[in-house]
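Standup notes
- DV: blocked on the single-chain target, sequence here:
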Amino acid sequence: MTTDPMARLELAAHRHAEAAQALTAARDDLVVEIVAALRAVREDHALTVQTETDIARLTGWEVAELRRLAQEADLVGLDPA
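- DV (later): unblocked, structure below
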């Protein structure tokens, strides 16, 4: 390992950028899966409420945030693969 402070800083900055990109990609994947799960139960209100509760428990996100994500996905035409 190098002892040059600037080289170490550059390496740390590179690692940080890679981690940030990976986190963004993982969050995007999670949002797509959330939207797909909510759409799958959209016609059954009781199942929708249970699914929202389960997703909120799994993700730590509020139900209102999950609903907002689904609404935004509908607005922009996000189509889960």
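- Follow-up: Residues 5-76 form one domain.
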